[in-house]
Automatic annotation (TrEMBL):
Domain ETS: 141-222
Record-given protein name: ETS-related transcription factor Elf-5
Record localization: Nucleus
Domain of life (superkingdom): Eukaryota
Family: Belongs to the ETS family.
GO CC terms, sorted: nucleus
Organism per entry: Cairina moschata (Muscovy duck)
Keywords: Activator, DNA-binding, Nucleus, Transcription, Transcription regulation
GO BP: cell differentiation
Residue span(s) of domain PNT: 34-120
Gene Ontology MF terms: DNA-binding transcription factor activity, RNA polymerase II-specific; sequence-specific double-stranded DNA binding
InterPro entries per record: Ets_dom, ETS_fam, Pointed_dom, SAM/pointed_sf, WH-like_DNA-bd_sf, WH_DNA-bd_sf
Pfam families for this protein: Ets, SAM_PNT
Amino acid sequence: MLDSVTHSTFLSNTMVCDPLMSWTELFGTTEDVYPTCDHQTDSDSFWTSIHPEYWSKHNVCEWLQFCCDQYKLDANCISFSHFNINGLQLCNMTQEEFLDAAGICGEYLYFILQNIRTHGISFFTDVEETKPTNKDYLQSSHLWEFVRDLLLSPEENGGILEWEDRGQGIFRVVKSEALAKMWGQRKKNDRMTYEKLSRALRYYYKTGILERVDRRLVYKFGKNAHGWQENKI
DNA sequence: GACGATTTTCCTGTTT
DNA sequence: GAAACAGGAAAATCGT
């Protein structure tokens, strides 16, 4: 049964739907047909109580809409026709397919989805208080904390960042523009570029948050950065 | 409103 | 030549 939900199923949806169709054009108003929950107030209990694989088509779309609302993402960048699929199909999407479908919001949404899938938590779930959490990832106000928290979620960060030497706090920016886009989404600034982001990172050399590493796209946490050490988080 | 910290924007020059 | 780095300068933003 699971085999029936395949890559081709996902692609077939893209062929029968206009990629630019809006949410309501494609799905109508969910309130009309489907019982709804108050995702704004009961978001966590709903989205984490049911594994994404068991979401209905409308759950998938409600989740997308909810994320757009919650994180102030631009829903116009999402091709909702590509998401006329159920949860199992959603989970079977490759990262590439997901990013194609979700546009510039893709990295961010993929990160959230992987969190729910693998940990059963969403960004709005309180988890262990002693280590940086996905909640912190959303709420940390500083760039270096944003970078740190992305690094602490290696399975979900979409390969944007990776450790070169975890013990030394050395990491590499793998997808520079994707990182900039993600930071831009976070700051609601669609003009963010890696050039600007890297300038902000270089200011951290002065304050000891980062230390210079003479290699391209490689940075190192400095003595004044905290929370990145494996045994101290 | 002033102030400081942080980030953004723009820039020129250098390095890889 | 392109991408990334380095860092000055000024402006913007935000919290206090």
